[in-house]
Each structure stands twice: as C-alpha cells, then as structure tokens.
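One thing: can you check what follows?
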Amino acid sequence: MRRIGLAVVLAVSITLAPLAAEAQQPAMPAIGFLSGRSPHEAASALGAFRQGLGEEGYFEGKNVTIEYRWAEGRYDRLPALAAELVTRQVTVIAATGGGEASGLAARAATATIPIVFTAGGDPVKLGLVTSLSKPGGNVTGVTFIFAELGAKRLELLRELIPKSARIAIIINPSYPPALAEVRDVQAGARARGFQVNVLNASTESEIDRAFATITRQKTDALVVGTDPFLLGQRDQLVRLAVRRAIPTIFFSREFVDAGGLMSYGPSIANGYRQAGVYTGRILSGAKPAELPVLQPTSFVFVINLKTARALGLKIPSTLLLRADEVIE
C-alpha cells in the first residue's frame, strides 16, 4: 500500500510540476500605445516604433504585449483613452500621434507609470517636462520641433514662387503647437512685406471648405501646418492641392510620397524609432527622468518633380541643389 501511495504522489508531482513552473513565470510587460492618429494611416510609424523596440530586444507577442488606443484625429478622446491604459496597469505608455495632446493626456492620467512621448513642438513650453536634458518625473520622449520650422517652409515656397503675394496656411486649431507655427509663419511674412491668410480645418469637410476659400481668394501658394490629423488626411490634402493647382509645401515627406509638391522637416519614422528605443530601455529598467528628450539632428527637404510638372512649375536650380531628395 505504501508503494502504491508513493507512486501516486510521484505521478501527481510530475503532472503538476510544469504547471507550477508556468505559474511562476512573470507576465510579459505591457506597453500602452496611445495615439491621436488612425491605425491604417499610421502603419509605417508604428513599424518604426516596433523597430526601435526590437533594437532593445523587445518583440511584440514574444516578450512584450502592446495595448493600442487610437483617437483617430479626435484629440478630445485622448484623456479617456489614457485613463483606460492606466486602469489596465500597463508597464509604460508610449504617447504618440497627437503631438503634445497625447503626452499631456498620459501625464494627467498618471504620475507613476513611465511615459515616452513624441511631440511636434517645445515640450518644456507646453509643460510636458521641466527641461530637455533632465526631464524629471515619469516623462521623457522625442520632439520633432515641427512648429519652429514654419518660417523656413515659407521661405522655400517663396523661393519657388517669388512673386506670390497671396499665401495661405491651413492649420488644425485643436493642435496646440499650430498657433506657435502660425506666429512663426506670420512673422516671416511680415519681414518680407506680405501677409498670410490662416484657414482652420479639423475635419475632412473643413479641409474641403478651406480649399474652396483658397480657390475663391485666388491664393498663389499654400503651407500645410503641422498636425497629426492633417498628416492622416494627406491623401485628401495632396489631391485637392494638385486638383486646384496650388503649389504647396508640407511638413513631412509622407505628403510628398503621396504626391505632394515639397516638404521640409525631420524624419517622423526616425522619431518613432527613437521612441521605441526609449520604451525598450525603460522596460529594461531605465528611468524616464534620466533619459534626455531627443531632438532631430537633421531636416530633409524633398521635391516631387512629377507633381511640379503636373502643376506646370519649373523648379529653380537653386532649390534643386538644396534638396536632399528629388522624386522623379
């Protein structure tokens, strides 16, 4: 009887051992991916983020999980989505695709969960961090400084069309850095003796109405202001600009890849990759307060010659020489 009892104990122990070992394995860390954009149009940015994670040894589904929350251009949804991720007790929040709105929503939702943001403007002025070199608290990330480049884009547009007197800028007023960009563009215009007409657009229908105004006012050229929502509407913006024959400069090369005329700005893909790297480092134990906010080290000027020909424009050789890339 004792032998039978011992055999039963051994059999049960062998059966339960793998289950006990599995139960002792720590759960995979979870990233909360908060974005003001839409999943279908942000696929390339998300791929770059995953690339950065991979550089730090983290791969979705293998040793880390990702919970996605997409605001799809409605920035007012970000606070509730951030609160959901906090409730889910994610390990770190990657607050992207809404400029400062995503980061600010995450920061308001938690003072303990680490946050890695991507931002379009100055994160210090907007209250995301106390300084770029020493962010402090639970927040760090990447800034594209898009908004500070408005006057430069205006300069490039005027070099293309030196006699242009009626220039407009489309912005999304719901995006905080847009107002700073408008001030930058208007200051550049005043220095050159002309004014810029500001058109607001935060929905697809408002974009259509903005272009109707551009046509009615016989606008010579257009600047598309920095905004993740407008980036998500790049196909619509490019289509209308070409259809209405309005020379337009954009803030990101994604517009030019979609058929836009020109763009000047940092690499969005590289910024997302850097955010992925920081997220991976935090998963490995790094503290956000010790990771300085990253800034772009270069800006890319891209020209689409095919679109220029469709618009009947001859690109000056001076611009072609300054371009980092020319799409034939």
